[in-house]
Amino acid sequence: MKSLNIFIVEDEPLIVSTIEVALRKQGFFAIGDAEDYTTALRDIELLKPDLTLLDIQLSGDKDGVDLATELDKKNIPYLFLSSQTDPNTIERVKHTNPLGYIVKPFTETSLRTNIELAWHNYNESKQHFLSIKHEGRLHRINQNSIQYLKAFDNYCYIVTKTETYLVPHTLKHIYEQLQGNDFIKAHRSYVVNLKHILSVNKNTISLIDESIPVSASQKSLVVSRLKSL
To answer: CB-based contacts of 24: which residues, under 8 Å, 6+ apart?
Structure first.
């Protein structure tokens, strides 16, 4: 699991320090904190953390549930970290979409476990599948496993880590079916998954087991997109 960048929304400085220490011990990065709705929303949009730990009781008129509602609108993932478990609070929480609810006081182990499970479930929910017909059978391919696409006349090869599929569609057609921002055209005959690129050389892109060509016109765009991952 990657070392997540985590933002803390908590109005008690001592608890913020405790959370920061616990996160560092578990291999996470605490990239900022805020004690009120307005500051938190501004800093979260600016810093773009992987995950936000959100207390319910905050300074000011708006609390953590109000902030959660706004984060839901922006599809920003968060976990509640709060001591409040009263029926009224929980009823309000039911109308939000947190990845979990950690009850204070917490242990370092429970904090790590809840964060890891929440992040795993979040990534699972974001996965996309491509449905194709190959050799008379219907296949659902996880897009994350696709290394690249290769044009072959009016057909297209879909190359994954373990299989190669030849489908009766053009490269352009398959490319347009892919969801998310992980794929980019590297050459007139190739579309590559950015997450599988090891390096970009003069005329080629190196993947785990092989290389594919990259055109001069696309090379700078591929490199730019890699840097933004």
So the answer is: 30
Q: Are 50 and 119 in contact (CB under 8 A)?
A: yes
Q: How far apart are CA 157 and CA 12, in angstroms?
A: 56
Contact (Cβ atoms closer than 8 angstroms) between residue 41 and residue 35 = no
115 in Cβ contact with 4 (< 8 Å): yes
The mean pLDDT of the chain is: 93
pLDDT at position 30 = 96
Region of 78 please: left (phi>0), alpha (psi -120 to 50) or beta: beta
Q: Which residue has the tokens 């773009």?
A: 48
Q: What share of the chain is helix, strand, coil (3-state, %, to 5)?
A: 35, 30, 30
Q: What's the DSSP call for residue 209?
A: S
Structure tokens at 226: 């890699």
Residues 6+ apart with CB under 8 A from 50: 4, 5, 6, 77, 119
* Residue owning tokens 């320090």: 17
Q: Return the structure tokens found at 24.
A: 């560092």
**Which residue reads 């933002």 in tokens?**
7
pTM score of the predicted model: 0.61
Q: How confident is the model at residue 1 (pLDDT cuts 50, 70, 90)?
A: low
Nearest-angstrom CA–CA distance, 177 and 185? 14
Structure tokens at 114: 């809840």
Please say whether the beta carbons of 90 and 65 come within 8 A.
Answer: no
